[in-house]
Write a structure and sequence with these properties.
This protein is α/β, with parallel strands linked by helices. 42% of the residues lie in helices and 12% in strands. The chain binds 3-methyl-2-oxobutanoic acid. 3-methyl-2-oxobutanoic acid binds next to strand 6.
């Protein structure tokens, strides 16, 4: 049956998009009001990414983000979302010790966070076993290959991956392995367009690209990057659709000037006593005290 624009997005709906389209629209969100706007705007997939650490919590990278922080923000997002599928991102060290601990942590995204799936970085042999264990526990899993930001200390800096044949093959094989392990989709981050296209043709699950070219079955961006929240450096793959930094800064400066110059609050933003109550109050107060001189 054809998908209608109001249909709840489920994993079968996303899988069908691979063949019948349209492309999957994914953005990150970390709080209730923005998740509500994204959902009402027709975003299909909302990722509560561990990018939370960098764009909201002020960490230098994603490594310090904890499970409790992720669950807290996932709950805020899922309380707002009616249509989109919400995916919670497994933070660093939530899946590094054992399969049991990985499944327990992943289950928290579903049971406490209200998410429908989790995302996990990497496609090593050990990682694939974890994906199998989560899928076996009825936890839908999205993979993530190419640039995996949790490996920052290994990589030294964030840069495009798979630019030489060996690296490109590793990414293509990694995506295929994730599909075999039961992942329902795979994020491809910072890889050449040709690698994005090759992976997309090689797997029957949707590919969600971020700096992976137009051939992917869907696209994701970090919301704060595409809205222009931060004034500094942005990766090449970001397109800025708004200047929220400028909007907020302009509004705050206008507010500050109004407060300092006494233009806010005005009559329209104030409460008043009824005239008879004001007279009665004044009569019971005795002579009015001298008003403090305004600076
Ligand atoms: O944490 C995140 O926001 C992500 C996206 C960049 C895919 O993993």
């Amino acid at each position: 049956m054809a998908e209608s624009p109001t249909d709840k997005i489920t994993i079968p709906v996303l899988l069908a998009r691979k063949t019948v389209g349209p492309r999957i629209v994914c953005l990150t969100a970390y709080d209730h009001p923005t998740a509500k706007i994204l959902d009402e705007s027709g975003v299909d997939l909302i990722l509560v990414g561990d990018s939370l650490g960098m764009v909201v919590l002020g960490y230098e990278n994603t490594v310090p983000v904890t499970m409790d922080e992720m669950i807290h923000h996932t709950r805020a997002v899922t309380r707002a979302v009616k249509r989109a599928l919400v995916v919670g991102d497994m933070p660093y060290f939530s899946f590094h010790l054992s399969a049991d601990e990985t499944v327990r942590n992943a289950s928290r995204f579903l049971k406490e966070g209200g998410a429908a799936a989790v995302k996990i970085e990497g496609a090593s042999k050990k990682r694939l076993k974890l994906v199998e264990a989560m899928v076996e526990a009825e936890i839908p899993v999205m993979g993530h290959v190419g640039l995996t930001p949790q490996s920052i200390h290994h990589l030294g800096r964030f840069r495009v991956r798979g630019t030489a044949v060996e690296g490109a093959l590793r990414i293509i094989e990694g995506a295929k392995d994730l599909e075999r392990a039961g992942a329902f989709a795979v994020v491809l981050e910072s890889v050449p367009n040709e690698v994005g296209a090759e992976v997309t043709d090689s797997v029957s699950i949707p590919t969600i690209g971020i700096g992976a070219g137009p051939a992917c079955d869907g696209q994701v961006l970090v919301l704060h990057d595409m809205l222009g929240f931060a004034a500094g450096y942005q990766p090449r793959f970001v397109r800025k659709y708004a200047d929220i930094h400028g909007v907020i800064s302009g509004a705050v400066q206008a507010y500050a000037a109004d407060v300092r110059d006494g233009r806010f609050p005005d009559d329209a933003t104030s409460y008043h006593l009824k005239p008879e109550v004001a007279v009665d109050l004044a009569s019971r107060q005795g002579p009015a005290p001298k008003r403090r001189a305004r600076r």
